[in-house]
Every structure is written in C-alpha cells, then in structure tokens.
Amino acid sequence: MLVRSYLCGRWSDAGGERLPLLNPATEEVVAEVSGGGVDPGSCLDYARNHGGPALRAMSFAERGRLIAAVAARIYEHRDELIEIAIRNGGNTRSDAKFDIDGATATLSAYAKFGESLGSERVLADGDLIQLGRSTRFSGAHIRVPLTGAAVHINAFNFPAWGFAEKAAVALLAGMPVVTKAATSSSLLAFRIIEILAEAHTLPDGVLSFIAGGVGDLLDHLSSQDVVAFTGSSETARRIRGHGNVINRSIRLNVEADSLNAAVLAPDATEGSETFELFLREVARDITQKAGQKCTAIRRILVPSGMLDRVKLELSERLRGIRVGDPAAADVRMGPLATAAQQRDVREGIELLKSEAELVCGDAGRGDVALTGVAEGRGFFQIPVLLCAPDPERASAIHSHEVFGPVVTVMPYGGDPFQAAGLVCRGDGGLVSSVYTDDKDFAVRYVLAIAPFHGRINIGGEKVAEQSPGPGTVMPQLVHGGPGRAGGGEELGGLRGLAFYTQRTAIQGYGPLIEKLVRAGTQ
User: Which residue pairs, CB below 8 angstroms and at least 24 apart, start in 353-357?
Assistant: First the structure.
C-alpha cells in the first residue's frame, strides 16, 4: 500500500523518495510513504477558500452532524483499522481498540456538543454588560471562527485518537483541518482519511492529509491559521522559534514531554480497594501501548514503610506480562514503534540507572521469551521497574522522560506536601494521580500540585469501579499542561473551541448588541 497525501480535494503521489513503513514486531515492510513534492501553500489556500467557507456557513448542529458522520465511518471500518494498528503500530488488539475507540468516542462527544449548541453560528462569551447609565449603551463578547486553516501535527503513538481529538474541536469551531501524521505509523491515519474521502463524508477542502514531511509549510502560514502540535519538546522549540510563526503571532498549541507521577497515600494500606486500584492502574499504564503514551506514569511515590511491598507487587505484575508479536492472542504488550524509539528507551534506562536500582526488567530483552517473535527481530523492550531510594537527591529521574514501559518507584515520608514537592520537580505535567480515601490528604496534595498540572486524577474506593485511570483522556476535560508538558490545552468540552476562534468585544446600542450576539440564529 502506498501512503499518499490528500490535498486540494485529490490524492497526490508526488514521486521522489519513498519511505518504508515497518511492522515493528517483525521488521517487515507493510507499506511505503510517498514523500516530497507537496505544495503547502496551495494546500492551505484550498482549505481556507473552500473548506473554511463551507464550515462557517453551517450551524453548530450541522457541524456536529458532520463530526458524527466521521465517527460513524471510522466505526464501520473498526475491524480493518484494528488490523492496521497491529501491523504498523505494534499494538496489541486491546491497544488498537484503545486508540480507535478513543477516536470515535471523542468525535461522538463533540458531535453532541454541536447538537447542544443548535442553530447558532456565533458563541456568546458571557452576558450582556451595561456600560453606560442604562442598557442603551452595552457591550458583550462573542467568539467567531478564524478564517484560516488548522494545521495539526500528530505523534506516532495515537494515529487515530490523536487525529480525532484535534479535528473534532477544529471542525466544530468552524475551521478546516490540514493533518500531518507521524510517518512511522501513518498507515492507520492514511486509511482513515481514505475512508472519509471515498464516502465524501466532509465538504471539499474541509480535511487535508500530508504524508511524509511538511516541507516549508510553516512559511506559508497566515495570522488566521493555527498550529496544534503533539510530539517532542525539541521539535516544539523549532516550531516556536520559526520566523513566520513569531512574526505573524500564529497561535500554537503544544503537547510535549511529561513526567507524570502517581502518589500512594498512607491510608491506602495493603489489601484495601484503593491499594489494589493503584497497583492495577500503574501496571496498566506502564504496559499499555508499550508505555508509549503521553499520559503514562513515569514516577511513583509511596510511603517509606510500603516501599518493599509495592516493589514486590508491581514486579510480580510486570513479570506476568506476556511480551511479543501483538498479533498473537495471548500477548499483552507489543514492541516499541521504531528502532530509534527502542534505542532511545534503552539509553534512557541506562541514564536512570545512574540514580536508581533495577528491580525487574533490563535495558534489553533479558532472558524473557518473546511470543511469536523470530530471534533478533522486532523493536522490543520488556517492562522495567526501577527504585530510587533517595528521590530528594535524584536529578535525571525528575528531568528525563523514557518514552516506553519504564517506571521508577520512590519512597517519601507520608506528608502530602513532601510528595507534592517531589512531583513538581517534573516542571509541569499532563496528569498526576493520587490514590487515597483521606479527604484532607487529597485536598492538600491536589492544591499543591495544581499549578504544575493540566489534570489530576484522584483514585479511591468510591470510584474504583468507574475510573478509566489517568491514561484515558476525557473529551469533557482539558488535556495539556504547563512547563515541560508544552504549555498547551486541548479538549475540555466547549473550552477547546477557544483556540480556533477569536474572542471579540463589541460595544454600542444595547438592542443592536443583542442582535449581533444572536446573529448566528438569524
């Protein structure tokens, strides 16, 4: 299969170098990517001049129905897309479902948000404000869609969900999307775009797809365009520092690195439902998608007296994970995405071992038999648990993210503020978890770390049966975080529309202002 770009309403095979896409479990070529030859300027103009006007002419409810149709098309091809995710992404069947079902769930949520907004095309931002002696002279704030294109640059780990969570918000806001999938796992995203194009699900110009590199795309951005990026902090710095992005004050949303932490409170003793929830969610977070999740737990803090028990319990769970070819039914963790990813993970483990002792796993395959894998093939890394006995003196543990199935457990004295201080040394995170039924501990800890995090997950016996864990991004809540995490914010229900709309203050004759606010229903 050839992964091509979909630009200006048609498929483009620009020729030039073709890059192989591999099955990371077998290293066999499963497809090729057509790279080079993309004309970003024409692509952006087409999206602005065709897709943008089509979307802005629609009400929120009409856009919502478009988003629902996208979700329906993806769901219709769910089984096929799962197989692609296994072959090109190295996902187990469970991990593939997590990605694809997360995509359709997010799209469906935003379809319902559109339905709730009804026939409006303008969002009122607050109430009418009296500015003079009477309401004759009044003001208000409204939000209207920008007239450019939304450029989405996605990471390799969630080719379906990553596409969907950005596209759903932009489409509901009224902006056309130009999406760029990470090359190594782009077969899944390409097939989704192909399905949507074949069914003519969206109006012309509303959705474009770039395969391979983006070329000089950033040079062609206008002040009405926006860029949403998920990936490494190094790439984010390059985008932030691009001359055109700076000169035109182009909106940029970044989701980057995150040393997410989980804290076990002293009240969550061995055998309690909260303790079991903690173990279950931590073990799942380490191994789901082979630890290649932006929300994965990287650091664990437990009371000193419980350290040995936690190490033992987690070690047993991680050693019980069957690693191998994700196409095998009994495999629970597949390979890393690429050879480069495998190399980075192993180098990262060695760095962390300078401050922490190895509890289980190692920086290679060890003596673990991999299921269904030929000798020496695939980009595998078995789960690794490290222990840093002195977290106060550690440095790399709190500053270097190993993007794989690797976690470090550390002791603390049981005080919520000490735990918060250690967690905040991560310098900004997407999500932190605390497992406790002690309300006072939870309040102190949450308020102490809140300035450093985009989301906080509180696990306890009251929610044990309902909680999806910290690794699941909910469309109703914001996703993003300050500092190291990139400083961005996505989703959050209707809050997500702010990035794709302009908030404008209007002032004048009160009845006219009211009419303007209601203009979307006229």
Answer: 353/386, 354/396, 355/388, 355/393, 355/394, 355/395, 355/396, 355/397, 356/386, 356/387, 356/388, 356/389, 356/394, 356/397, 356/408, 357/386, 357/387, 357/388, 357/389
Tokens in use for 145?
């869609």
Residues 6+ apart with CB under 8 A from 81: 74, 96, 100, 160, 188, 191, 192
The total number of residues written for the chain in this structure:
522
Following DSSP, what letter does each residue of 169-220 receive, concatenated?
A: HHHHHT--EEEE--GGGHHHHHHHHHHHHHTT-S-TTSEEEE-S--TTGGGG
Between CA 361 and CA 295 the distance in angstroms is 22
* Tens of pLDDT, residues 248-297: 999 999 999 899 999 999 999 999 999 999 999 999 999 999 999 999 99
CB 112 within 8 A of CB 64: yes
How many secondary structure helices (H) and strands (E) does the chain include? 15, 23
Candidates 3.100.10.10, 3.40.50.300, 3.40.190.10, 3.40.309.10; CATH matching 261-476 = 3.40.309.10
Cα separation, 47 vs 215, in Å, equals: 17
- The residues spanned by each domain of the chain are 2-256+488-521, 261-476
Buried b (16+ CB within 10 A) or exposed e, 179-197: bbbbbbbbbbbbbbbbbbb
Query: Sign (positive/negative) of CA torsion 480, 483, 484, 487?
Result: positive
Q: How far is CA 366 from CA 86, 358, 381, 434, in A?
A: 24, 13, 9, 32
Q: Which fold has domain 2-256+488-521?
A: Aldehyde Dehydrogenase; Chain A, domain 1 (3.40.605)
pTM equals 0.92
- Note the pLDDT tens digit of each residue in 129-162: 999 999 899 999 999 999 999 999 999 999 999 9
- Over residues 194-209, mean pLDDT: 96
- The token duo for 280 is 């279950």
Distances in whole angstroms, Cα of residue 41 to Cα of each of 237, 238, 293: 23, 20, 33
| Helix 93-117 vs helix 161-173: crossing angle, to nearest 10 | 10
Largest CA distance in the chain: 82
CB of 254 closer than 8 Å to CB of 245: no
Distant-in-sequence, close-in-space partners of 372: CB < 8 Å, separation ≥ 6: 25, 324, 325, 327, 328, 331
What integer is the mean pLDDT of 226-255? Answer: 94
Neighbours of 237 (CB within 10 A): 12
Kindly state the tokens that stand for 318: 């991680």
Contacts of 364 (CB under 8 A, 6+ apart): 346, 381
Instruction: Report, as an integer, the average pLDDT of 394-412.
Output: 96
The residues that are catalytic are 255, 294
For residue 453, give both structure tokens.
């995090």
CA atoms within 13 A on the CB side of 209: 29
Please report which residue ranges of 377-506 form alpha helices under DSSP H.
416-424, 439-449
Neighbours of 483 (CB within 10 A): 17
pLDDT at position 522: 45
